[in-house]
Amino acid sequence: xxxxxxxxxxxxxxxxxxxxxxxxxxxxxxxxxxxxxxxxxxxxxxxxxxxxxxxxxxxxxxxxxxxxxxxxxxxxxxxxxxxxxxxxxxxxxxxxxxxxxxxxxxxxxxxxxxxxxxxxxxxxxxxxxxxxxxxxxxxxxxxxxxxxxxxxxxxxxxxxxxxxxxxxxxxxxxxxxxxxxxxxxxxxxxxxxxxxxxxxxxxxxxxxxxxxxxxxxxxxxxxxxxxxxxxxxxxxxxxxxxxxxxxxxxxxxxxxxxxxxxxxxxxxxxxxxxxxxxxxxxxxxxxxxxxxxxxxxxxxxxxxxxxxxxxxxxxxxxxxx
Length: 321
Ligand code: B12
Description:
42% of the residues lie in helices and 11% in strands. With 321 residues, it is α/β, with parallel strands linked by helices. The chain has three domains: 3-53, no CATH class; 72-128, Ethanolamine ammonia-lyase light chain (EutC), N-terminal domain (DNA Binding (I), subunit A, Orthogonal Bundle); 131-320, Ethanolamine ammonia-lyase light chain (EutC) (Rossmann fold).
């Protein structure tokens, strides 16, 4: 599409917005329009493209004020038109976190639902692509090693197999810094959500450490693994030879919920172990999930049980059945 055609469309949309009173801070484009930079997406907010080229036109002050769609009031607002029983609908919406009562515009989502969906999706993307805050890792004195991922988060998502292997450098660093054969080894992995670690580590880590020490067990040198998958527990087991590994890792985020963490655990993990040899305490988060303080105490109990029965996963289930 050429610039002139694009400009025509922008003008027509802006004229409609002005007529509907939907925008403010905008001069009406009565005179011949300035050329607009071609952009791929619908041109409702052309300001950044214009600013970056130093050009100006009548839309430079375009300001479409929309309320934050993620507030509780708007998130759970009934949007079905002409509802026969509005209070029943409100009650129904309040009874579930599923997206119901959102209404529609013809066969499509209405704008409010779409914006909320996009906002929630952005939370998920952020959690997946971001690294854990370095300040948090520093707070707990955690050094960082990497798995065999060398191509960033993109490769991490495409190659789970590489996220299950410690790199050679990681093995050297661990050999240098970690005590060998501890009773309990805690490891922190980004997994699929940095936000999950940031939301829960401050509460859960001290409980585990104190719990392990109070039980008279040795607490291994904790560290952080970047680009971490659950299966990396096998390589850690081979490198450190702990009795029990507790891997705190970010779970795959749901739409708009990224703070859920898991503790995957195994007794003497080694090459070839599978998820059948592991246990997991999942959905660790405040307000609705397993509270991180309680989860901390719980995983210490499981670690003790694993040591007592010298087993984890299905074998532990059978031993305690
Ligand atoms: C993705 C997923 C799966 C995928 C894993 C595929 C993959 N390669 O990623 C599939 C569909 C195969 C799966 C299967 C099962 N899962 Co599942 N799974 C999840 C989910 C949605 C996300 C996990 C995650 O983010 N992990 C973190 C990332 C970083 O790990 P990863 O290295 O990429 O992937 C590993 C883990 O996901 C692990 N894993 C996945 N599920 C389970 C379950 C158990 C008991 C263990 C030990 C490991 C494990 O397997 C992957 C390969 O090692 C969680 C929900 C949640 N809230 O956590 C449920 C969840 C962990 N799964 C659960 C269950 C019960 C199972 C099954 C036992 C179901 C069944 N009856 O068959 C099987 C067992 C799988 C096994 N590997 O032995 C439960 C665990 C509950 C509990 N505390 O015991 C959860 C919490 C869902 C739930 N709320 O019920 N799962």
